[in-house]
Amino acid sequence: MPRTRKSRSVKKNRKMRKEKKFVGGMLETHGLPQCNILSQFAITDESITNFSREFTVPMDCFINALQIMNVLNEKSANIMRISTLGKTGFQKDQIEVIFIYTFRTNFDFKLTNNFDEWASWIANLLQPGNVVFAGYTGHVFLIGRLANGTIVYIDPQVPTLCDLNDGNCQQYLQGKSSYYLLFNSSEMLTPEQENVVKAYTQHLQMQS
Hints:
Elements: H1 5-18, E1 37-38, E2 41-42, H2 45-49, H3 61-68, H4 74-82, H5 85-88, H6 92-103, E3 105-112, H7 115-125, E4 130-136, E5 139-145, E6 151-155, E7 160-163, H8 167-170, E8 179-188, H9 191-207
Antiparallel strand pairs: 1-8, 2-4, 3-8, 4-5, 4-8, 5-6, 6-7
């Protein structure tokens, strides 16, 4: 009896569950394209100034970022805050999968232990009128570049929007052990690669 597409998918899922660790960018070792571009998202001043939330919860920094970036509307974001996600937050793998699912390219929340390297990626690559999704261990936020070139730290949990050239603003970021910036692939995912991501997502759920 020939194998069906469903049976092949089930076997692939089982194989991925046996994997002890997925390394590299998001599944680059499983055929997804390399993440070599700083992920930049166009944003308006209104998206920042009109931000609001009905519930203040301890672990909604990722939800805040998605709302400001218009990936989530205010109601959907508030529903997520009400859920257990408002208390537990998101893991790195979950963040990458959510961006992959939304934009259909590969994503890597790239790590560096060097603040100067992290800051240089932003200074050299971030274009005016855009934000990049960023973070340090235990917290995420947005970094934006205004039309005049000023780089700003955007974080509703602090809350603040400040010029990163200002020492008072830098105090929020310096001295951390690890820093992250979101990168993506230039290639869109194929249907086969999207199936790999689905299998990997199922693997994550089974591990939790």
